[in-house]
Design goal:
- By secondary structure, the protein is of the alpha/beta class.
- The protein has eleven helices and 15 strands.
- The protein has helices at 7-12, 16-31, 107-124, 139-148, 164-175, 187-193, 235-239, 248-251, 256-262, 274-279, 300-313; strands at residues 3-5, 35-36, 41-45, 50-59, 64-73, 84-92, 98-102, 132-135, 156-160, 180-183, 196-199, 218-221, 242-245, 271-273, 292-295.
Length: 315
């Protein structure tokens, strides 16, 4: 019998420390070749602007495989709707029967994306973290800062958004969970003040440029998860000391880093997958003067591991 799990049940099953540990395990399995992850299915829409991603796969030794459907429609907030939605389907690897339908309304996708950002910062952020810069004011902008609180003691932040009203609301909302947030007059001001920056937008032209980044800065880019999206100038990857991707196969086709690859500013061999970085300490940041970048496009192993965490917690 297929179990249908509601969002309320899913939220009760989530523990941040266990989520981070589960995703780290998933990233390592992926980079070690122990995961079967087919290419991502993409649907892109223009009017209204939106997209749908279909990700699926399994990890060797698991009892289940997972199919995840996630949508992002960026004008939904104007209609009083969330910009993201979706669900996860958990199937038995022995019979192919659907064991669980996780009606998470896109919440698990948003959560695992934020947890991946926290993992990137855990291994790449400078030790002397002064201020966290967030580019964007939406769901992911909130979750990224919240989840950084699970791996860092820094509670000083700065936000930049196109809409000043939304930026003010962001500051108020994040203050309620313990962060002091300043409003950045410009992205250049944010880059000057912050040595950990997270970009969370569906931008299609670069928002952050190499000339704006000071030594010692770490940047995590999570917005460019499909074709045509670009938050970071390609030149940033050339000047960076360490370039990390969640999936080289995905990031070479889309994501912020794909633009640098197509421009031949860097070679694929100059990237390190996040799973290798977690497994091998010698690959991590060496000092607080290095510029580091993590390009995260979202990998099915994140969905596989968080789905397993939820189903096991509710068993």
């Amino acid at each position: 019998m297929t179990r249908v799990v509601t969002l309320e049940q899913i939220k009760r099953a989530i523990d941040p420390a266990r989520v981070i540990a589960a995703l780290e395990d998933g990233f390592v399995a992926y980079s070690e070749g122990r995961a079967v992850v087919p290419p991502v299915g993409h649907l892109d829409f223009d009017d209204p602007p939106g997209d749908c991603h279909i990700k699926c796969g399994f990890i060797s030794g698991d009892e289940h495989f997972v199919v995840k459907v996630a949508t992002g429609f960026y004008r939904n907030p104007e209609r009083g709707l969330s910009s993201s939605n979706g669900l996860m389907l958990v199937f038995s690897r022995k019979t192919g029967n659907p064991d669980a339908v996780l009606l998470d309304q896109g919440w698990l996708t948003d959560l695992r994306t934020a947890a991946a950002g926290a993992i990137a910062a855990k291994y790449l952020a400078p030790r002397g973290l002064e201020k966290i810069g967030i580019v964007g004011t939406g769901i992911q902008a909130r979750l990224q800062l919240e989840w950084l609180g699970h791996v860092s003691e820094c509670r000083e932040a700065m936000v930049w958004g196109r809409n000043p009203e939304k930026a003010h609301l962001y500051r108020k909302d994040m203050a309620s969970i313990g962060f002091t947030v300043a409003l950045a007059p410009s992205i250049a001001d944010l880059c000057d003040a912050c040595n950990l920056i997270v970009t969370t937008t569906p931008a299609r032209t670069p928002l952050i440029h190499s000339a704006e980044i000071r030594p010692g800065t770490h940047i995590t880019a999570v917005g460019a998860d499909g074709g045509g999206k670009q938050e970071l100038e390609a030149e940033l990857f050339r000047i960076a000391d360490l370039r990390v991707v969640d999936s080289l196969a995905q990031c070479s086709k889309y994501g912020a880093s794909s633009y640098a690859l197509r421009a031949k500013l860097i070679d694929e061999e100059e990237f390190v997958e996040l799973g290798r970085l977690i497994r091998c300490p010698e690959l991590r940041r060496r000092n607080d003067r290095q510029i580091t970048i993590a390009d995260l496009t979202g990998v099915a192993v994140q969905d596989i591991r968080i789905a397993r965490l939820v189903t096991e917690s509710l068993a």
